[in-house]
Design goal:
Elements: E1 21-24, H1 27-38, E2 41-47, E3 53-60, E4 63-69, E5 79-83, H2 87-96, E6 100-107, E7 112-118, E8 124-130, H3 136-143, H4 146-164
Amino acid sequence: MTTKPNAVQPIPEGYRTVTPWIISRDTAKLLDFMKEAFGAEEIDRVYNEDGTIGHAEVKIGDSIVMAFDWRGEWETPCFLRLYVEDGDAVYQQALVAGATSVTEMTYLFFGDQVGRVRDPLGNIWWIQTRLEDLNPEKMGRRAGEKKYLDAMQYVQQSLDHELRNRGRK
């Protein structure tokens, strides 16, 4: 592939190759939650003629998250991974902001501490911090150790419980 001199960049500055786009029952509430829970910076909010939000963008860390209000039965929950410097603090901050715990912060065999919360609109946020850089051999050994097997089982069961019980809340 050849590029033209002075060509427009195909990915705008500030965006990544993949950008999540959340369809929400109440995008204004979602934006407020992301600001309070994750320190999101609002970039843009565009209203439709009926007062619903047709497009909104926030920046969390170095990533853009987009959202808009649902129409009829469009809603779909979103699953988002959020790598942060202090997972424990962000997890607690999300709970204070109105999230519900899905998975308490748990150290896993591959060197990450992971927790999950459900925001007030039903989206699941994976909150993660890399604590160790491990080679594949060490990860493989750890994957078979009881404490890491138990941790992985807890993480899997907590998500399964959340997803199976969604319609019952």
